[in-house]
Design a protein that fits this description.
heterodimer; A: Amidase signature (AS) enzymes; three-stranded mixed β-sheet; 38% helix; B: alpha+beta; eight-stranded mixed β-sheet; 16 helices; 41% helix
Chain lengths: 484, 479
């Protein structure tokens, strides 16, 4: 069952080949059998079975939608009423969310079944899932390697068949990079397409939720239910949501692909370079033309990102002060002691590093040199993308400079860790939609192909991804150890 | 005062906007609820919550801006002011920094008969913090977040004020205006209208400002005057003894009538302002501006001038009657309903009515004598049913009951005696009973006339028409 697509699952449920309760039990058993992966922080078994029973009742009454009764799991960044929502941090280890994120609300309303909450880098800050308070997640393809991050639990769970599909969030690549490293399909929508209400903020101007799936068709189904204007999020886009399934089957004849020259520098792993080349050739076969484009400001993306994201996080994480919720130190002597020890004891090293960097960047006398300058760079990068996408329909390239690295390999060198997001970060600064789709292997480890589209071009990206997945079978590969 | 020194004062006034709900959440803003019962997930700063701007607060800010003839920013930006405090749930206050919604404007004040124009630098929207409660918690502090997220408009004046008196006049003028515009209830006890004062002193004639000190959170006109005067004296004392003023924030202690240091410039927070990424820029279109302009009420100054012209009132009466919109409305209603002479109405409102309100410590909105009921009384005075003097008795009864003037006059038998024959009979009896006084009057002692009038009024319990009494007495006594 865990190899079926969402539409196959939906058909199976309708044809009564299996019930939602049976399907849910199947996944709960798989989760229980493979604890070493550490993909879940919380498994909500009882709740899931109750939701499944309700879904079965709806199915029996013929009131089912396309997602009714299908299980999923949420990245532990989405507030889920009555369920621990930790954000991967000791700070929120005791936090039972008193309300639902809009994404959770919408997927509950679609009668999906929530299996549990997925592991992640602490407060979504990390590229390897190693900053989680709950320990690292393993890569199902290579257990000595990281799954990527910050949505590492989501990527590993979907890759290993511990959830048919999952939600993730992407601030600098946190959906696409783990999707690439775990060989699944991840979509980061246009900034504003999916509501951020109830999604614990890391960097508000960059954070965006999206689907992490086994295929573009599955991602289209989940995005359909996640997307849309939310009056509770002032930055959500008040635009109609197109039917993402409608154009999946359309031909790519005449598609214009742009390859940003800066994506193919000498630093790129040669195995990845040849996978990308093969994928682009596949697109040629599907009727696309290919040209080189330029994103001249790309090299400024990482420094600009770490100024903006750190600045925003330094402010966003101020609410974790030990006063109203979350971790509070033992026996505080006074107010300062309460603040210093609560935050000092509950935040991990990477979170502290970014809070300090952000606080510095916003300080009087430094604001113009750092924050303001970074915002100007952001504008340049957006303009680069605008110009490139005026010439072509979609940009393609690698998602990561190298395949999954070994656990512990980069934890001692934050800058090396930051550089693993070199291709993804610029997209967040520009607010564009982008995908990672499985396109092959390098040294036995999955490689993702990066698709970047214009604003609100999710439908087009999904079509481009789906056509590739119709022609190739990379997305159907399953890590051998988890196949059974 | 020390004539060689000049004070320079600027005020920052926090007006709490009278919206139903908070500036970034749907929670209610009503004052005085049980602690933390009016704080929702957004006000508590729970993980994952987001602010959504209350458009009513925008409308009120623009209303204010238009009323002081200020520039309205077509785009203004919310920024985060970052600092840690337990009653600040998010660890930052959402405010406006570089791009406020209201830009340069002005307000005219009057001091000692002189008019002076005071510049308004800016006015910006922001959210209020909660309250820390330091009593009743046995060494701990309590936090009440009901006030967190209440909309404030911070109005910053130019340093144009030169005395505590001018500062108070400006503050009063602003207080009157925001209540006129119905954007703030002006309740100073509840903190709806509070003031920070920036004070410095320089030698007269010097162009540069002296070092300034900010006095925080003064919540009455009286204290503003006292705090500023105290601070000016302190500066002059320090300067004259060769010392230097330290730039700092001070608190005014009303009990001791002194200010004391709260924190110096060195200890001041670096608020690390930056644009709030959760909120879009606030756009005020020309269309919205025009819409608000069209609904702008008549402003105090214009109303004062109209009252003087339309109702023939002296400047002082017109000013008193227009000191609040409710009082002005009361007066205009009274004139309309009573059909009486506007001056008579003005005298009654400024005299008996305001006197009674002051004595009872009530606002016009809480007045037990509605304009309809006072109009009923004035009508009876105008048509001579009762005398003005009896009118005052009836007014007291109006104040203490729910009866109409007519019911009171009827019940108490207060109808004026205008029957000439009846008055003549009474006067004849008085003349007959007091021959000595009649002699004196006829001998040229005019003052005795008052005695006769007094007797007549006494015997009629004040109900005799005074004009009739005078006329008849003069005629009979001169015979």
């Amino acid at each position: 069952m865990h190899k079926l697509s969402l539409s196959e699952l939906a058909a199976g449920l309708r044809a009564k080949q299996f019930s939602s309760v049976e399907l849910t039990q199947h996944y709960l058993q798989r989760i229980a059998r493979r604890p070493e992966l550490n993909a879940y922080i919380t498994v909500t078994g009882e709740r899931a079975l109750a939701q499944a029973a309700a879904a079965d009742a709806a199915l029996a009454k013929g009131e089912a939608g396309p997602l009714t009764g299908i299980p999923l799991a949420h990245k532990d960044i989405f507030c889920t009423e009555g369920v621990k929502t930790s954000c991967g941090s000791k700070m929120l280890d005791n936090f039972i969310a008193p309300y639902n994120a809009t994404v959770v609300e919408k997927l509950d309303a679609a009668r999906m079944v929530t299996l549990g909450k997925l592991n992640m880098d602490e407060f979504a800050m990390g590229s390897s899932n190693e900053t989680s308070h709950y320990g690292p997640v393993l890569n199902p393809w290579a257990p000595d390697c990281v799954p990527g991050g910050s949505s590492g639990g989501s990527a590993a769970a979907v890759a290993a068949g511990l959830a048919p599909i999952a939600t993730g969030t992407d601030t600098g690549g946190s959906i696409r990079q783990p999707a690439a490293l775990c060989g699944i399909t991840g979509l980061k929508p246009t900034y504003g397409r999916v509501s951020r209400w109830g999604m614990i903020a890391y960097a508000s101007s960059l954070d965006q939720g999206g689907p992490m799936a086994r295929s573009a068709a599955d991602a289209a189904l989940l995005l359909q239910a996640m997307a849309g204007f939310d009056p509770k999020d002032s930055t959500s886009a008040d635009l109609p949501v197109p039917d993402y399934g409608e154009t999946l089957q359309n031909s790519l004849q005449g598609l214009k692909i742009g390859l940003p020259e800066q994506f193919f520098s000498a630093d790129l792993d040669s195995g990845i370079a040849s996978v990308i080349e093969a994928a682009v050739n596949e697109y040629r076969q599907l009727g696309a033309s290919v040209q080189t484009v330029s994103l001249p400001s790309l090299e400024l993306a990482i420094p600009a990102y770490y100024v903006i994201a750190s600045a925003e996080c330094s402010s966003n994480l101020s609410r974790f002060d030990g006063v109203r919720f979350g971790y509070r130190c033992q026996n505080p002597q006074d107010l300062t002691d309460l603040y210093v020890r609560s935050r000092g004891e509950a935040f991990g090293a990477e979170v502290k590093r970014r809070i300090l960097m952000g606080t510095y960047a916003l300080s009087a006398g430094y604001y113009d040199a750092y924050y303001l300058k970074a915002q100007q760079v952001r504008r340049l990068i957006s303009n680069d993308f605008r110009q490139a996408l005026a010439q072509v329909d979609v940009l393609m390239g690698p998602v990561t400079p190298a395949p999954a690295f070994r656990l512990g390999e980069k934890t001692g060198d934050p800058v090396q860790m930051y550089l693993s997001d070199i291709y993804t970060i610029a997209v967040n600064l520009a607010g564009l939609p982008a995908m990672s789709i499985p396109a092959g292997f390098s040294g036995g480890k999955p490689v993702g192909l990066h698709l970047i589209g214009g604003y609100f071009a999710e439908q087009y990206l999904l079509q481009i991804a789906h056509q590739y997945q119709q022609a190739t079978g990379w997305h159907q590969q399953f890590p051998a150890d988890y196949a059974g | 005062m020390h004539t060689q020194w000049e004070a320079v004062i600027g005020l920052e006034i926090h007006t709490q906007l009278a919206t139903q709900s908070k500036i970034f959440s749907g929670a209610a803003t009503a004052y005085g609820a049980e602690p933390n019962t009016q704080a929702c997930a957004v006000d508590l700063g729970l993980p994952g919550v987001l602010p959504v701007l209350n458009q009513e607060a925008v409308r009120m800010a623009v209303t204010f801006g238009l009323a002081i003839d200020a520039e309205i920013a077509p785009q203004s930006v919310f920024a985060r002011k970052n600092y840690f405090y337990p009653d600040l749930p998010k660890g930052y206050q959402i405010s406006q920094y570089e791009l406020p919604i209201v830009g340069k404007g002005h307000l005219d004040i009057e001091v000692d008969g002189q008019s002076k124009r005071i510049g308004v630098t800016r006015a910006h929207l922001e959210e209020d913090a909660g309250k820390s409660l330091h009593e009743d918690f046995h060494g701990l502090s309590g936090i009440d977040l009901n006030r967190a997220g209440t909309p404030l408009l911070e109005i910053v004046s130019d340093p144009d004020l030169r005395s505590a008196k001018e500062a108070v006049a400006y503050m009063r003028k602003l207080h009157e205006l925001v209540r006129y515009l119905e954007i703030c209830d002006g309740n100073m006890q509840e903190g709806s209208f509070r003031c920070d004062a920036n004070v410095s002193v320089r030698p007269k004639g010097q162009a540069e400002y002296g070092t300034r000190v900010e006095i925080k959170n003064i919540n009455s006109f009286k204290f503003v005057e006292k705090a500023i005067n105290h601070e000016i004296e302190r500066h002059i004392d320090v300067l004259e003894s060769g010392g230097k003023i330290v730039q700092e924030t001070r608190l005014y202690d009303a009990n001791k009538d002194e200010t004391r240091s709260m924190r110096s410039k060195e200890e001041a927070n670096d608020y690390r302002y930056f644009p709030d990424p959760d909120l879009l820029p606030v756009v005020v279109t020309e269309e919205l501006k025009q819409q608000i302009l069209a609904t702008l009420p008549e402003l105090p100054e214009a109303k004062k001038q109209r009252f003087a012209a339309q109702y023939g009132l002296d400047a002082e009466t017109a000013a008193t009657l227009t000191s609040s919109r409710e009082l002005a409305d009361y007066y205009e209603n009274l004139v309309k309903l009573s059909g009486c002479e506007a001056k008579l109405c003005g005298n009654w409102v400024c005299g008996d009515l305001l006197g009674a309100l002051n004595k009872a410590g009530l606002e016009i909105s809480q007045c037990p004598v509605q304009s309809e009921r006072l109009a009923g009384l004035l009508k009876r005075i105008a048509d001579n049913t009762i005398s003005g003097k009896i009118g005052k008795q009836v007014f007291d009864k109006l104040w203490n009951s729910t009866l109409s003037a007519d019911e009171i006059i009827e019940q108490e038998g207060l109808v004026q005696i205008t029957d000439t024959a009846a008055i003549e009979a009474i006067i004849d009896a008085i003349i007959a009973a007091n021959p000595g006084q009649v002699e004196q009057y006829r001998a040229g002692k005019d003052k005795v006339f008052g005695f006769f009038v007094g007797q007549a009024m006494k015997q009629t319990q004040g109900k005799a028409n005074p004009d009739e009494v005078n006329k008849i007495l003069r005629a009979k006594l001169s015979n």
